[in-house]
Amino acid sequence: MPVALITGATSGFGEACARLFAKNGWSLIISGRRSERLDALAKELDQTPVHAVTLDVRDKAAVDRAVAELPPAFAAIDLLVNNAGLSLGFERAHEGSAEDWETMVDTNVKGLLNVTHAVLPGMVERDHGHVVNLGSIAGNYPYLFGNVYGASKAFVGRFTQNLKADLLGTKVRVTNIEPGMAETEFGKVRFKWDAEKAAKAYENMTPLTAEDIAETIYWAASRPPHVTVTSIEIWPTQQSFGFFSIHRDEE
Ligand code: NDP
Ligand code: 8X3
Q1: Which of 41, 53, 83, 104 is deepest in the core (most CB within 10 A)?
Q2: What number does the ligand 1 atom closest to the CA of 55 have?
Q3: What kind of fold does domain 3-250 have according to CATH?
Q4: Does 202 participate in catalysis according to the annotation?
């Protein structure tokens, strides 16, 4: 059975990926900070071998320990879905919170590096594996209030390309998935659990779903070994460059 490590499996894309990969016969290492959600997901997927690890990706020592101490059946990771991430706050840069900026960089940039650093050497040693990163359209195009979040996702895009360069000569693949607006807990986190504001962002448009993204990740991961999908932008039909429905009220 192939093994996938999914970060941020307690919600949204990560949780949908866990369900889809389980359905397709994968073993799973699911991780996130909210243990009770990991336990519930493991229970739901009771036909699937699941190893649940409560983990904050910002804690490098904990990430290293979690990967070093994997039970033997889960130790050879075939697929890493570097999904844990967040956007915090939605304001112009000169009004932004330094603490929010630091949390975004620590999670979306350094957290993704921590997990990659712990997992990638094993993949190269086995000459087999796939790293799927969660970038965003926010990393490719600027938009109002996107400042640090978009920059953190631009990092993910370029890091993915540079991994591709470094991995030439190995059979390890890398992919950057770059979604537009998808309705998950992401909006609630971005608006600090102001549910009304979060919902407003999706007013008069049909956002992507977590399942849309899980299917996209699954498609990229299930191409034959000689095919690497380096990046996929996936947009809601009713979103376009620089557009958020909430801007109409903010400006
Ligand atoms: P959710 O908020 O639904 O899920 C985010 C996940 O990340 C949660 O499981 C959360 O788990 C985890 N996470 C956050 N911080 C940490 C941390 N420090 N350590 C470990 N896990 C953490 O959002 P989505 O599913 O929508 O987002 C997933 C990824 O996709 C993110 O990287 C996001 O930036 C990206 N993305 C989202 C888009 C969207 O519109 N929804 C579009 C484009 C990209 P827990 O809190 O339990 O730790
Ligand atoms: C999140 C997608 O469109 O909110 O990465 O920037 S968007």
Answers
A1: 83
A2: 20
A3: Rossmann fold (3.40.50)
A4: no
